[in-house]
């Protein structure tokens, strides 16, 4: 059984899923009445990262920069730092009495969503993958693929 991957189709699916995630995050920010500056900042950051990912799709790194263990550790530490920073930013340090800002819930929830995205991305990056011996392109581990989707080289 041969699975034929159309890379243009996968790029479209990836773009649509990224757009859906972007709309969900912005919708949650609007639902929790986050300030306009936070919504615009999150929108710009998500748009930049999404376009950067789509432009480089499909990924073809020759070798991973980090090992599996290093990627997993970073995937746990970075989301925790993001959430901790959002809690620190949501607290009104100069208020009388000190307490959380009115929009703290939306800010912390958006940081949790961003941390979850980083965690899932690092988890998927730490999974082992095969590489084409001809061009070095990454081949997904799921399914049986007879030809490389990048160069058409027959795989064993």
Commentary on this structure:
This protein has helices spanning 7-31, 36-55, 68-90, 104-126; strands at 91-92, 99-100, 130-131, 138-139. It is mainly alpha-helical and 156 residues long. It has one domain (7-59, 67-139). Strand 1 (91-92) and strand 2 form a beta hairpin. It starts with 6 loop residues before the first helix and ends in a 17-residue tail after the last strand.
Point out poorly predicted stretches.
none
Tell me the series of helices and strands, N- to C-terminal: HHHEEHEE
Q: Counting H and I runs of at least 4 residues, what is the number of helices? A: 4
Count of the domains = 1
Shape: elongated
Biggest sheet: strand arrangement = 1-2
Main pleated-sheet profile: 2 strands, antiparallel
Distance between the termini: 13 Å
Q: Please identify the oligomeric state.
A: single chain
Structural class: mainly alpha
Strand content: 5-15%
Helical residue percent? 55-70%
Radius of gyration: 20 Å
The overall pLDDT average reads 78
Q: What is the count of β-strands? A: 4
Topology, pairings included?
Elements: H1 7-31, H2 36-55, H3 68-90, E1 91-92, E2 99-100, H4 104-126, E3 130-131, E4 138-139
Helix pairs in contact: 1-2, 1-4, 3-4
